[in-house]
Amino acid sequence: MLRQRLGNALKDALKSKDKIGLSTVRLIVAALKDRDIAARGKGNMDGISDEEILGLLQGMIKQRQESIVLYEKGGRCELAEQERGEIVVIERFLPKQMGEDEVAKAVREAISETGAQSLKDMGKAMAALKGRYAGQMDFAKASALVKQALV
């Protein structure tokens, strides 16, 4: 599903001469091909799953957010704007992001379902969240909430 959307977006960006969209989708497709090649080396001939693609996209957004901070500190506002434009393109492929209240509720449910009681059990709760909400939440924020609840 996501692969088809990426292919269509690449064609649309080519037709509309959307430079940022085209370059960003090409970056996504290249990263996806790299992950697929690595997956084939591990015996998965179909490539990575849609959940893993969503994780890849979230990672790309996180990288760009970090770059924006560095560019702004260095006075390179034009590069920061380019990164923001790429984030907008990448976000088109992600499902609707969960709000803070929804994330907090999901964290409480994951802790309850996994029986997590201490920081040693944090991995169980995070694995449950990642399995269920890939692409829908900021896992750094969720991790902080899980940690706070288990302390």
Plain-language structure description:
- There is one protein chain.
- This protein is mostly helical and 151 residues long.
- Helix content is 77%, strand content 0%.
- The chain folds into 2 domains: 90 residues, Orthogonal Bundle (Hypothetical Protein Yqey, Chain: A, domain1); 51 residues, Orthogonal Bundle (Arc Repressor Mutant, subunit A), CATH 1.10.10.410.
- The protein is built from 7 helices and no strands.
- Helix 6 runs antiparallel to helix 7.
- The chain is globular, with a radius of gyration of 18 Å.
Q: What would a concise description of this structure say?
A:
77% of the residues lie in helices and 0% in strands. It is mainly α and 151 residues long.
